[in-house]
Amino acid sequence: MMQFPSPNSLKRNFAARNTARHQTRSLFRRIGISALLGMSISGIGVVLEVFVENHPLLSLDSLDNISTGIMAALLVFAYEQKRYKAAMDKLRVIAQMNHHVRNALQGIIGCRIFSEEERQMQLIVDSVKRIEWALREVLPGGTSTKD
């Protein structure tokens, strides 16, 4: 008998492939931006030397412009990598926050199940405390609230 994958495993596999594809595209984008900027800086320097100092287009004197372009490309790539990592860290915090708040809200939503009013109130208070904990502990720079 043939077993089919569950819908949840299909969603996880799709999400993993989609994330890997996004990371690859993002890496190529960062590399492209860095290379384009480095080549632009090198090209401008070489063209200026040709017109201002009457050097040949490709000469040994152009090496300083090429090395400046390479250094600029490396600096831009390092900056882009740092910016990408910061954005991914923020997304991870948001995802974790989403998980905690949704779990706490499930208790509030499920409150209709209980018939006793006292038990409902305790469940709501516990859920609110979990939300406050998540906001205080998980989110960076969260405000501390005293009960």
Could you explain how this protein is built, in words?
The protein is built from three helices and no strands. It has one domain. It has 147 residues and is mostly helical. The model has no long low-confidence stretch (mean pLDDT 79). It has helices at residues 7-53, 63-109, 117-137. The longest helix has 47 residues, at 7-53.
Please describe the topology of this protein.
Elements: H1 7-53, H2 63-109, H3 117-137
Describe the structure concisely for a colleague.
This protein is 78% helix and 0% strand.
Order of helices and strands: HHH
Secondary-structure-based class equals mainly alpha
Strand content: under 5%
Mean pLDDT: 79
Largest sheet: none
Characteristic terms for this protein:
single chain, mainly alpha, 78% helix
